[in-house]
Structures are given as C-alpha cells and as structure tokens.
Fold this sequence. Notes:
The chain is an alpha/beta fold. The protein has helices at 31-45, 95-104, 121-124, 155-163, 165-174, 180-185, 198-212, 215-228, 234-248, 252-262, 273-276, and strands at residues 7-12, 15-20, 52-57, 62-64, 110-114, 117-119, 131-135, 139-141, 177-179, 191-193.
Amino acid sequence: MGDxxxxxxxxxxxxxxxxxxxPQKLNAYTRHMMGEICAAMDMADGDDSVRAVIFTGAGERxxxxxxxxxxxxxxxxFSSDAPVDDLSDDSVxxxxxxxxxxxxxSTKPLISACNGVAVGVGAxxxxxxxxxxxxxNARYGxxxxxxxxxxxxxxxxxLPKIVGISQAxxxxxxxxVFDAEEALRGGLVRxxxxxxxxxxxxxxxxxxxAENTSAVSVAMTRAMLWRLSVADHPMLAHRVxxxxxxxxxxxxxxxxGIQSFLEKRPPEFPGxxxxxxxxxxxxxxxxxxx
Length: 290
C-alpha cells in the first residue's frame, strides 16, 4: 500500500506494519524516508480499521543503522548544508525530531520490533513508540558524542522519561553500542525474543489491544499518559481525567464495555477515532485550557 520507495506500509486486519526498507544500506535513515514514514502515519491515523502500528526493519541485520552518512537525496548527513543566519529558520530543524514529533501525535499505539542494529536515529526514533520489543540480536547505540554531535530526535525529552536520567546520561555520554539484554535491564525495551519470534510477539501485543479495547479510549489514554505525566501539577491531569470520564461514560463504547462484561463476551466497541473523540480533544490546542 502506498507509493513508497524506502519503506513498506502493509495492513493485515487491525494491524499496520511500517518496514524501513533499505536493507542494502542497513535501513539507514534519510530525509526521504522521514517523509515516507510520516505519510504512512497519516494513512494509519486516518484509517479507523487500523488499531495499532508495528515498526520493523527489512533484512536480518538491522532495524536502522542511523543516518545515511552519504545520503542519496543531497545535503549533509545531519542537517541542511544551506547557509542560515537565523537558527529559528525551518531548515535548521532536525529530521529525526520531525519524525518523533509526528509519532508523538499518533492516535494509534506504536510498537517497535527491533530486529537488529539500531544506532543513532535508529535508536532515538523508537523512543516515541509506546512499546519496544527486541530480537536477541538487537544492538542499540546513542552514539552521537562519538560523532561530534548531540542526541537528536527529541531524545533528550523521551529517553530520560523512559529509562531515568542516570541511565540516559551513561548511554549518551559513553556513546557505546549495547546489546538487547542491557537494553532490557535498563528499561529501554519491554522484552527480548528470538529473532524468528519477534514479529509474532509484536503482533500478539497489537492484537491484544485491538481485540479488547475501545479505539477512542486507547487514543485518549495515549495522549493523556504521554502529555500529562510531564504537567507541572496533577490538577491538569485531574481536569482532563474528569472531562474524559464525563464525556466517554455517556457514550456507546462505555455501554458496550459494561454490557460485554456482564454478558461475559468479547466487546464490540462501535466508537471511531475519526468521529467520536471528546469535544475538548486535543485539549492542548484549546486556548486557555485550565
């Protein structure tokens, strides 16, 4: 699906899969790939039948070996070569950050199935995903200090939230490449699997969500946990919680959730993210929301 050249986008039932597809380059990241992933995310978010998105890499060696240091689409490997005096100019923006900010906006759960090497942006792009599963041959590296630059893709925001500040500092300051077991111990990944079983495990998690939950509830929950966990005071969370419960408890999904529980059957939630989100969503765009 989709007219893509550096990724594949496939939908199987309620699960979409985005595959980074430059195996001859170890799926190295380019600006063109960034645009294609963002376009695929627009497709997934716009399709109510898609309930979760899995990310993986083509081939058996790599999820993504970082930025392509000799990109085919022109320009320098890390940023635009165009002369810029104003650092607020749009051309200064980091391509990895453009991607993770798009992933952050997703209304669907995002699952990383890391099937090999994931360094640089190959590691940081996964931080904006909700669940990270690793093959036993996966390798991670926040190698920026060894390349004379700094962590990108908003990872200075995401990584400490996921693994804590001390672990984030160690991995970023040493720039070392580490294996899946260290990633598991450090809290970066949820679980480690034999390579042949990785995609089945990721799909199993996606289906657990798709078959048992309300799409509207999951979209709201994702936004609430990512955004409200960094609010200055729990009162903001209380306000969003209260409005969400008030609105959703009166909807068809809540009625179905209760009825299916009482009847001891799987739920069939009718709600759709495209039409049934609460009227105050997205609350962060509402002027003066208090």
